[in-house]
Design goal:
Length: 579
């Protein structure tokens, strides 16, 4: 029985007592503590002597919590449990006979609601109706083999959605398994903090205060990690309303990034330099300072990053400053804006070290998040490799991101040159001049020469296809803050070869073995050796461990929730929370 718990400490003991009292005792009882800030961990800890195990994650999502519990158990039969529910003593024993037929994948009973609502929900499983109606309770008995055959808990578009249990049951039915009915039920508690309380008692929905309006101020709006970070905030917004984006006068924009942001708010400013693709979707009227004066009258808070001190110098709004620049640029811009900032958001230890000591009392740490639906592959791995022109049986080694000196993109070509036949270089990024800076002709020729023609230049918004097809990703940067590319690769199960830049050493200290490290300015031979290590069974195992760690602790949902909390508190002048 896998018990998922997010701040349900007040219910957890009653739930566990009912599980431990079963006439047919479960072989494994695991409590997945998901981002709990109450006494849930202490309560679960009392039952260690009774065979209850604990798993702690930070996903804030029941789909990923169930996935974490599934990966840490081995029993062939499973019941997913919400920590606020209670079970009669014979519940497990009554469900088990339905599994005698190997063609049955799910055995369901009924749910007896109690608390703020009452009544029995008794599903009537009908294989043909599962697409329209849920025919099984959340705490049904399910066969692990059925979950595996239906590839359940691999669809990242389910992250953050309601009715996740129904989606899982649908996949099992589609895989050909049947659903059986047992004459038993459990007590499903209905209370104010149920995720689906609005379906039972509409008048009990928690009323959210009026949402503060946020302005985005940045040095650019082009395809990159900072822009993807903004898009995650926009797409996941709940308690903050985004008013407008302002790119300062020396900044640059591109049509892809601006077009994505325009789905949520208008974009102002941005003078284009000669080698950056223009965006005719940007409103250019006044200077950036004058435009900010117009916009801030209808806003409550500013989210800024980069060297934006000139724009922010005289604003009357609270400023939440995010650190997205690394190296000397990051140090200088952070030092310049820190005195103006109300709160400073750091992505980890490395970013915090860039803040001048006298302003570190303003810092709060919010690690980067991964937009899991964006990483869902849209096509088969072999089809992607064919499109790239990778010969059958060859390995595709990749670089994802813009062509920029600090990212050391030429290292990929040097690695493929050292690896020799059987390896193909994939450069995925805005390298063609359509968006972003084009690759200088001489450097492109050098890369193609080193690779012996085994190189592909590509760009796609479906980065999930890229990570799924790569045998390894190279991140040979001289400096980073918190590379979104690195997090995406690990979340996709793609082995990562990287320099110890930015947040990666901090991550490695917490969970050793997640990254295959190479020194700064690595040689082709060093890179080749690291790539070959990722292809070993041990390297593949470590890639799977990295995937689990990122999926459980670095979701965009968790990140957006934390950022919105900071923006709301900045608006209310509640700055003490940063200490």
């Amino acid at each position: 029985m896998i018990v998922t718990c997010h701040n349900y400490g007040r219910f957890l003991a009653e739930c566990l007592e009912s599980i431990l009292a079963q006439t047919h005792r479960p072989a494994e009882i695991v409590v997945v503590l998901d981002a709990c800030t109450d006494d849930s961990a202490a309560i679960a800890g009392r039952y260690r002597g009774n065979g209850v195990r604990m798993v702690e994650i930070q996903s804030r999502d029941v789909y990923l919590a169930r996935r974490a519990g599934l990966q840490r158990t081995e029993s062939p039969l499973i019941i997913f449990v919400d920590a606020d529910d209670v079970f009669p003593k014979t519940y497990v024993a009554d469900l088990l006979p339905g599994m005698a037929d190997p063609g049955v994948g799910i055995v369901t009973g009924w749910a007896d609601k109690f608390g703020l609502a009452s009544g029995i929900w008794e599903p009537h499983p009908n294989q043909t109706d599962f697409e329209k109606h849920n025919g099984a309770t959340a705490s049904s008995l399910v066969r692990r083999r059925a979950l595996e055959d239906a590839h359940c808990f691999q669809d990242w578009t389910q992250v953050g959605r309601l009715h996740q249990d129904w989606a899982t049951w649908r996949e099992i039915v589609r895989a050909g398994y049947r659903v059986a009915k047992a004459n038993t039920g459990y007590q499903r508690r209905i209370h104010e903090t149920n995720a689906t309380i609005h379906m039972h008692r509409p008048n009990l929905v928690r009323v959210v205060p009026e949402r503060p309006r946020a302005l985005y101020v940045g040095p650019c709006l082009a395809v990159g990690g900072a822009e993807h970070h903004l898009l995650m905030l926009l797409r996941g917004q709940r308690y903050v309303e985004w008013h407008a984006a302002l790119v300062h006068e020396r900044g640059y924009t591109d049509n892809v990034a601006v077009g994505s942001v325009l789905e949520f708010m208008p974009v102002f400013g941005g003078t284009v330099t000669s080698d950056i693709a223009d965006s005719r979707l940007v409103i250019r009227e006044d200077t950036d300072v004058a435009t900010l004066r117009k916009l801030e009258g209808d806003a409550d808070v500013i989210y800024a990053w980069g060297a934006t001190q000139g724009v922010l110098a005289n604003t009357t709004l609270p400023v939440v400053y995010g650190i997205h620049c690394s190296g000397n640029t990051g140090l200088s811009s952070t030092a310049a804006v820190a005195p103006l900032a109300t709160m400073i958001v750091s992505l980890g230890e490395y970013a915090t070290s860039m803040v001048p000591a006298e302003y570190r009392h303003k810092v709060i740490v919010i690690p980067n998040g991964v937009d899991l639906p964006r990483l869902a592959p849209s096509r088969d791995r072999e089809e992607t490799l064919r499109r790239w022109g990778v010969a059958p049986g060859h390995h595709a080694i990749g670089f994802v991101g813009r062509w920029s000196p600090e990212k050391n993109p030429m290292a990929l070509a040097e690695a493929v040159h050292a690896l020799g036949e059987g390896f193909h270089a994939i450069y995925c990024g805005p390298h063609q001049g359509r968006i972003g800076r084009a690759v200088p002709a001489a450097e492109r020729q050098q890369a193609e020469r080193l690779c012996g023609g085994r190189v592909t230049w590509t760009y796609t918004e479906h980065v999930g296809d890229v990570y799924a097809a790569l045998s390894a990703l190279l991140l040979p940067s001289s400096n980073e803050v918190c590379s979104l590319t690195a997090m995406e690769a690990m979340a996709s199960g793609c082995p990562l070869v990287a320099t110890p830049a930015g947040h990666l050493p901090e991550l490695e200290r917490r969970v050793p073995g997640l990254v295959e490290f190479v020194p700064f300015a690595p040689t082709g031979r060093q890179l080749a050796h690291a790539v070959r290590q990722t292809l070993t069974p041990d390297g593949q195992r470590r890639a799977r461990e990295a995937q689990c760690h990122v999926l459980e602790n670095f979701t965009s949902r968790r990140m957006v929730e934390a950022w919105e909390n900071v923006l709301v508190k900045a608006t209310r002048r509640e700055y003490g929370v940063c200490q």
